[in-house]
Write a structure and sequence with these properties.
heterodimer; A: 229 residues; mainly alpha; two-stranded antiparallel sheet; 9 helices; globular; B: 3 helices; elongated
C-alpha cells in the first residue's frame, strides 16, 4: 500500500497531507491523554506499535503471484481506539520512508491516510459493530483486523486511480486496475492478519486480563484473579 | 487449557498455509515471480502514463538489496523483540497476581 516517493502529483500529495494532519494531531493528543490517565497501558501500547512494526515488515506471497504485506493496525485500534493508531502507523511509515525507501515523504500524507487513518477506523468500527451484533471476541477481532487490512489497500487503489486515471476508461478503469494489483492480492493476507490478530488477542486474554478489562475488551468476571480463557 | 493451545496452533498453521500455498502451487508468473504489489503499481503507472516524471526522490536509498533486507529484518526484529518482552513481563506479572490471590493477599492488584 506504499505509494512510492514522487508518485503522486504535488497538489494531490499536499491535499492528502492536509487531510491526514488533523487526524495525527488529534491522535497524538489522545495518545498522551491515554498514557497519562493509565500509565500501565504504556507497555501494551508499545506492544501494539511493535505488532504493526513486525507485520508491515513481512512481505508475504499471495495467490495473484505477487507479494504484499499486512498492516497490523487492527490490534491497536481495537485495544486503544483508532486515533492512537494514526500516530503509531505514521511512525512505522516514517521509518520505512526514511530508511527503506519504501513509500516516501512526499506520499506520506496519502499513505498515512490509508494505513494509519482509514485502516484503524474501519477496524474499530467493525469491531464495535460485530460485538453489538452479538459476535464473540474472536470473530469480532478477526473481522476488524481483516477488513482494516483490506480497506487500507482499497484506499491506496482509489488514491492511485484518482492520480492516474486510465487514458481510456478514466477513474473507474484505473480503480479496477489498481484494485486488481492491491486489493485482490491482499485478500489472503487480510485473512492472515485477521488470524494473527486473533492469536495475539487470545494470548493477551491469558497474560493481561486486567488490562483488557480496563480497556473494555473483557467483561468483569464475578471473581477476580481467575484465568480467563 | 489444552484446547486453548490447540486453537492457537491451528491459527498459526492457517497463517503459514496461506503464505506457503501460493509458493507451493507455483502461482508466481512473469520474469520475476512474487514481486511486490507496490512495484507492480509503479510499473502500471509508468506503462499508462509514460510522460509522468516522479518529482521527488527518496532522501536515502539502501545501496543494495542486502542492505534493504537487513533493514527490513531489523524492523521485524525490533517489533518481535518488543512483543516478546511484553509477553514475558505480562505473563510473569499475571503469575505473581495469581499466586497472591491464591495465598489470600487480596490487598494488592
Amino acid at each position: 500500500m506504499h505509494i512510492a516517493e514522487g508518485y503522486l502529483p504535488p497538489v494531490q500529495a499536499a491535499a492528502w497531507f492536509a487531510v491526514s494532519t488533523p487526524f495525527v494531531i488529534h491522535g497524538t493528543r489522545n495518545l498522551v491523554h491515554q498514557v497519562r490517565g493509565n500509565p500501565d497501558a504504556k507497555l501494551l501500547l508499545g506492544a501494539s506499535g511493535a505488532f504493526t512494526f513486525v507485520l508491515s515488515a513481512l512481505k508475504i506471497p499471495s495467490v495473484t503471484g505477487s507479494c504484499s504485506h499486512p498492516t497490523g493496525v487492527g490490534l491497536g485500534a481495537i485495544l486503544f481506539r483508532a486515533p492512537v493508531m494514526s500516530v503509531l502507523g505514521t511512525i512505522v511509515l516514517l521509518f520505512q520512508a526514511l530508511l527503506l525507501a519504501h513509500g516516501g515523504l512526499s506520499t506520506l500524507g496519502a499513505n498515512v491516510f490509508s494505513m494509519a487513518i482509514v485502516g484503524p477506523w474501519v477496524a474499530y468500527g467493525v469491531f464495535v459493530l460485530v460485538r453489538r451484533l452479538g459476535g464473540g471476541l474472536g470473530v469480532s477481532v478477526f473481522c476488524a483486523a481483516a477488513l482494516a487490512d483490506l480497506a487500507t489497500y482499497c484506499v491506496t487503489s482509489a488514491q492511485l486511480a484518482l492520480a492516474f486515471p486510465d487514458p481510456d476508461s478514466g477513474f473507474v478503469g484505473a480503480l479496477a486496475k489498481f484494485g486488481s494489483i492491491f486489493a485482490l492480492t491482499q485478500i489472503p493476507l487480510a485473512i492472515s492478519e485477521g488470524l494473527l490478530t486473533v492469536l495475539v488477542v487470545r494470548l493477551l486474554t491469558r497474560v493481561s486480563p486486567q488490562e483488557l478489562r480496563r480497556l473494555g475488551l473483557l467483561r468483569r468476571p464475578a471473581t477476580t484473579g481467575g484465568v480467563a480463557a | 487449557m489444552k484446547s486453548f493451545g490447540r486453537i492457537n496452533l491451528l491459527l498459526l498453521l492457517a497463517v503459514v498455509a496461506l503464505a506457503v500455498a501460493p509458493l507451493a502451487l507455483g502461482l508466481g508468473s512473469g520474469e520475476e515471480p512474487f514481486t511486490g504489489a507496490d512495484a507492480l503499481a509503479e510499473e502500471a503507472i509508468v506503462a499508462d502514463h509514460p510522460d509522468y516524471e516522479p518529482w521527488f526522490s527518496s532522501i536515502y536509498e539502501p545501496p543494495s538489496g542486502e542492505i534493504e533486507s537487513a533493514l527490513f529484518a531489523l524492523q521485524a526484529a525490533l517489533g518481535a523483540g518488543f512483543l516478546g518482552y511484553y509477553f514475558g513481563v505480562a505473563r510473569t506479572r499475571q503469575r505473581l497476581r495469581d499466586e497472591r490471590t491464591a495465598t489470600g493477599d487480596t490487598a494488592a492488584d
